[in-house]
Design brief:
about 550 residues, FAD/NAD(P)-binding domain, 3 domains, 8-stranded mixed sheet, 5-stranded parallel sheet, about 30% helix, binds 3-acetylpyridine adenine dinucleotide
């Protein structure tokens, strides 16, 4: 830590309401941050663009939306009573259940009164002389806060297709990440789904059940493992609850935030028989998890030949399930397994055996235009009643870029990150004192069980703020050297794996023109937590604290 001291006063005649902290976003991260800061006695205002709480789980209301981390691990751990009293119903709960849980938490801790819904933060400008952030909303509200905490979500800015004509379509259009609150009926309709990532994979089987005809436009096939979702076994739920402290600790110390048996061998260090027996177990076991396939061997995500064994195993399963060999071939991914977000699905491949479902490969004949009556590829025209865009997000930086964030000397965060995000620990940026990004770029975030990463960041930020208050520190700012070293480390950690070798939103390649860098830290949540704790223990090493 470097300490500097300066004297300043708040500007006189300041018209903005003064509070301690603004939190942007009322999803899992924002609500938890609010709770923690209130416990510290701070005055907090949360702004939320949606007209309900829940962030991701508010907006992703499409049919089939559910989490793909086990319910028992995908919830708050901060309150032992809360974790005991809430009863999960399924291995992977659906969106309505998650939204009920979030609203339950909000009521239980009386969080609503500090959340302003339907209000989008448009700008955050740092006033160095006052060491305060001036936050402006789209409703014209201006508030002055010591701390600005961005809990804006990693996947909250939907991305559309980059072709002309979207606004000309006369039928109904939906983006999975901005789904209407009312129930949408697809019975007897001709429906297009564009995109086969996690959202597409979840929505496609359900739409296929009622639509007259479903056409799926696939650019890149994904590796889809069977979710094998089921009603939660009460015995299992009781068992986890009885040892929750140990379970939480193990998850926090793990690589992806979901503890797994430690792998000791590379995939090619065991016999083919042993390897396939493992893959078969993960594929078939009703209690297995996505991450098991990724970390069952030490080198699945880092060695091309090892990775290929898992990839081929899944391709073989696709060929077994899909009746038409030409369709099966189109559904078989060619690239590495696990380093473009793999997916859990229910009846996904089976759906392509239905007579009312057609798969169109748009890697060879790309989408060319959305028309008044449907869409056209470079080869064929289609007519639809409904188009569903399951086309993903401007991930990690999209929501931060959407706010005009200006730090010391009016410097813009957007401009600072023009060649890719530069952060210290994925939590802070030099030039932007007292601004924190929960699960920000450069932290494990999307490469982990989000609940584990959210809680770790919220706790770290709350501790930092508490320390500042106790010690009379007015501003905390990352040092440029520390920031550069961390950002380099994030890139180097990525380079030790296969992640940068494939196109995916993890490296920003899904958004034309976005810098291609590693947007999340792959070093593992356990190691990352240790690093963050060490920084705090070393008197906030790498930060300048100004009194
Ligand atoms: O978005 P995606 P998503 N022409 O970016 C295609 C989380 N999540 O909403 O792969 C044609 O993964 C694009 O094709 P390609 C999870 O972390 C979790 O599905 O770029 N196609 C791809 O197929 C996930 O990773 C759950 O070639 C175009 C698809 O659209 C993340 O959110 C559920 C195109 C986008 O896939 C994002 O998932 C849902 C174009 N111009 C989401 N543009 C859980 O299960 C895009 N595509 C927990």
């Amino acid at each position: 830590m470097t300490s500097t001291s300066e004297h300043s006063e708040f500007p006189t005649g300041q018209e903005a309401r003064e509070i301690d902290a603004v939190v942007v976003g009322a999803g899992f991260a924002g609500l938890h941050m609010l709770h923690k800061l209130r416990e510290l006695g701070l005055s907090v205002q949360v702004y939320e663009a949606g007209d309900g709480l829940g962030g991701t789980w508010f907006w992703n209301r499409y049919p089939g939306a559910r989490v793909d981390v086990k319910s028992m691990y995908y919830n708050y751990s901060f309150d032992p009573e809360l974790e005991q009293e809430w009863e999960w119903t399924e291995k992977y709960p659906p969106q309505p259940e998650l939204l009920r849980y979030i609203n339950h938490v909000a009521d239980r801790f009386d969080l609503r009164k500090d959340v302003r819904l339907r209000t989008r933060v448009t700008a955050a400008v740092y006033d160095e002389s006052a060491a305060r952030w001036r936050i402006t909303t789209d409703r014209g509200e201006v508030v002055s806060a010591r701390f600005a905490i961005m809990a804006t979500g990693c996947l909250s800015v939907p991305k559309m297709v980059e072709i002309p004509g979207i606004e000309t379509f006369r039928g109904r259009s939906f983006h999975t990440g901005h789904w209407p609150e009312r129930e949408v009926d697809f019975t007897g309709r001709r429906v297009a789904v564009i995109g086969t990532g996690s959202s597409g994979v979840q929505v496609i089987p359900l739409i296929a059940r009622t639509a007259e005809k479903l056409t799926v436009f696939q650019r890149t096939p994904n590796y889809v493992l069977p979710a094998r979702n089921h009603a939660i076994d009460p015995e299992f739920q009781r068992g986890i609850k009885s040892r929750y402290r140990d379970v939480r600790k193990a998850n926090r110390e793990s690589g992806f935030g979901i503890a797994q048996p430690e792998a000791t061998k590379g995939a090619l260090e065991v016999s083919e028989q042993e390897r396939n027996a493992f893959y078969r177990k993960v594929w078939a076991d009703k209690d297995s998890e996505l991450v098991s396939m990724m970390v069952g061997f030490t080198d699945t995500l880092s060695d091309e030949a090892s990775n290929e064994t898992a990839a081929q195993f899944i391709r073989d399963r696709i060929a077994e399930i899909v009746a038409d060999p030409a369709v099966a071939q189109l559904l078989q991914p060619a690239g590495f397994f696990g380093v473009k977000r793999p997916v859990l699905g229910t009846d996904y491949y089976e759906t392509f055996n239905r007579p009312n479902v057609r798969l169109v490969d748009v890697s060879t004949t790309p989408l060319a235009e959305i028309t008044a009556s449907g869409l056209a590829t470079t080869q064929e025209s289609f007519e639809f009643d409904d188009i569903i865009y399951a086309t993903g997000y401007d991930a990690m930086t999209g929501a931060l870029d959407a706010i005009d964030i200006r730090g010391r000397d009016g410097a813009s965060l957007r401009e600072k990150w023009a060649a890719g995000p530069v952060t210290y620990l994925g939590l802070t940026a030099a030039g932007f004192p007292n601004l924190f990004t929960i699960t920000g770029p450069g932290s494990p975030s999307v490469l982990s069980n989000m609940m584990v990463s959210i809680e770790q960041h919220v706790d770290w930020v709350a501790d930092a703020i508490d320390t500042m208050r106790t010690r009379g520190v007015k501003a905390m700012e990352a040092e440029t050297d520390a920031e550069q070293a961390w950002t380099r480390h994030v890139g180097e950690a990525g380079d030790m794996t296969l992640y940068p070798k494939v196109d995916s939103w993890y490296v920003g390649s899904n958004v034309p023109g976005k810098p291609r860098v590693m947007y999340a830290y792959i070093g593992g949540v356990g190691a990352y937590r240790e690093k963050c704790d060490q920084v705090a223990a070393d008197d906030y090493d790498g930060f300048t604290l100004t009194q």
